[in-house]
Design goal:
With 205 residues, the chain is of the alpha+beta class. The protein contains four helices and six strands. It has a four-stranded mixed beta sheet with strand order 4-3-2-5. 29% of the residues are buried.
């Protein structure tokens, strides 16, 4: 969990504490507002985008690679324990207890502003770490309206092996989780691209 004093609602931090239902409602609103088709990615789409043509579970290499430049994951910054007012305990009074890769320091305690780390080969940032992401996929076949939905990518609180392209967890769709957000995909309906191109020809360069 994030410690007191470390905000998760900065202007450039990715949204968290958003249920799957709220993420789906956002996609519906955005679709209506823009005339485009926005949805959550399904698992196959998400993994394809994450890997960006690579075969390794992390797009930048093996799970034991130095991830400091590429992903905000559980590292030395996350593992350390701050002692805050009113206790003012001396440094080291509370031993680190969070599972983390202490040999790596990505410089972020909790979620970082989006785009802080290098993108994958397809220009996508934070496919591993920062915040985990809802997908449209149910965790198991035969979903009902409240069936758990798959979350992918891991967050600042996960070590690399729990944030790889093939790793999956799930939460109930009504649950808002402190380190889970979402990203969207946009589908262009057949013919829309040509209509857009035709319309743009009348605009000034």
């Amino acid at each position: 969990m994030a410690e007191r004093g470390w905000p998760l609602d900065g202007a450039r931090q990715p949204v968290v504490r958003v249920s799957w239902h709220h993420a789906v409602e956002f996609c519906r609103w955005l679709s209506a507002a823009t005339g485009e088709i926005f949805t959550l990615p399904d698992e196959t789409q998400w993994e394809y985008a994450c890997r960006a043509g690579t075969a390794t579970d992390m797009w930048f290499g093996a799970p034991d690679a130095d991830f400091a430049a590429f992903a905000n994951l559980a590292d030395a910054s996350f593992q350390g324990i701050q002692t805050l007012a009113p206790w003012h305990l001396p440094s080291g009074a509370l031993a680190p207890y969070r599972p983390a890769v202490a040999a790596v320091n990505d410089g972020q305690r909790v979620s970082a502003p989006t785009g802080s780390f290098k993108p994958n080969a397809w220009g996508l940032h934070d496919m591993h770490g920062n915040v985990a992401e809802w997908t449209s996929s149910p965790f198991a076949p035969g979903p009902g309206p409240d069936a758990p939905r798959v979350v992918r990518g891991g967050s600042w609180a996960e070590r690399p092996h729990l944030a790889g392209a093939s790793h999956r967890i799930a939460y109930p769709p009504w649950q808002s989780v402190h380190n889970v957000g979402f990203r969207v995909v946009c589908f262009t309906p057949p013919g829309a691209r040509s209509r857009r191109a035709s319309g743009s020809s009348t605009e000034a360069p």
